[in-house]
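User: Quick sanity check before I run a bigger batch. Here is a single chain. Can you write out its predicted 3D structure?
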Amino acid sequence: MPHPNDPTLRSFVPVDPASDFPIQNLPYGVFSTTDGLAPRVGVAIGDHVLDLWELEQDCRLEVGDLGVFAASTLNPFMALGPKVWSRTRARISELLRHDNPELRDNPHLRQRALVPMAQVKLHLPIAVAGYTDFYSSKEHATNVGVMFRGKDNALQPNWLHMPIGYNGRASTVVVSGTKVRRPRGQLKPPSAEQPSFRPCRRLDFELEMGVVIGQSSPIGERLSERQAEDMIFGFVLLNDWSARDIQQWEYVPLGPFQAKAFATSISPWIVTREALEPFRVHGPAQEPVPLPYLQQKQPNNYDLELDVALRAEQMNTPVRICRTNFKYMYWSSVQQLVHHASSGCAMNIGDLLGSGTISGPEKQQRGSLLEISWNGTDPLELARGINRTFLEDGDSLSIGGRCQGNGYRIGFGEVEGTILPAT
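Assistant: Done. Predicted structure follows.
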């Protein structure tokens, strides 16, 4: 049987060559329709969703734990482990192949199991157990350091020795399309004698990837590179909304808190690690060489193009404001997970790791408005008479991402959010 990543595979379901969801992808999500059934697990194929619960009911798809695809999150399926993930993806690929009549020539099952994407509502795909955000782009960290500490002290002394991160709020991780309310918080501009409590004035986005952890590790144990890789179920697009002025006042001495706690948006489709396998690349050379527990024996970065589009409320079409690549990350997702568990920290099914803002070496590759506008000193022109230094009420921002294969692409859809005024 051909491997699900075989670039020659074709599905009997029509798939546009520009689609994010060819048969080589098969990302998982949770969806509902107007049929009255509760949210359940599906896979994206072209402009359809394949209902895995219907296939399970018809005994076409068996994973050894009846009912996992009727769940409202992917956590029960992820708990079954990497061998089941791989076997299930191969079986789904087989059912969708153009030369397999099993589903193709069964009109009743096909009608039940293939739902047009336009008719579904997509939900948060996982129950987020915990959320950790990293700070792993050397370009981003350098840009921010230059802004606030000067060129000679841009990177903190520890930055080149370990992935820096902080624990965020799992309770405010939301799915794409969820509107984001402008947060209030304590602000104290340098010119003010006392802080005040008011709406954020410097609201920003952060272009990130999210790593979905599909297996747990016990408290007190460390992880090897291979163990960490096996625990990664897949990846999502992630926007870690940021209130820069709240952050500026609160982050000393312990880092971000309320400035990042109000919302983190993720895309609804989880692209599996296996689907991204053909796009693995080595990351940037790490100097100094990391301590032995963080050294890598294989390429753990991905050649994954990312872009950001921004549309002001008075504009008809969005404008692309950033285009970068996940391959630039200094610390890989595997290194982040290895380091996270290195103290004996237990990891749980459904944990979400944010990559940190993904910026590249060029100006057009900066992954936040803080960098694009250079902390508000260089406004971004969206259209005639419409400029931005930070996000305003009514602005809509979307992030897209894709890996380009030979005649197909592995895409993530998008993660989108629109800013609502503060209450």
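The radius of gyration is 22 Å.

User: Great, the batch can go ahead then.
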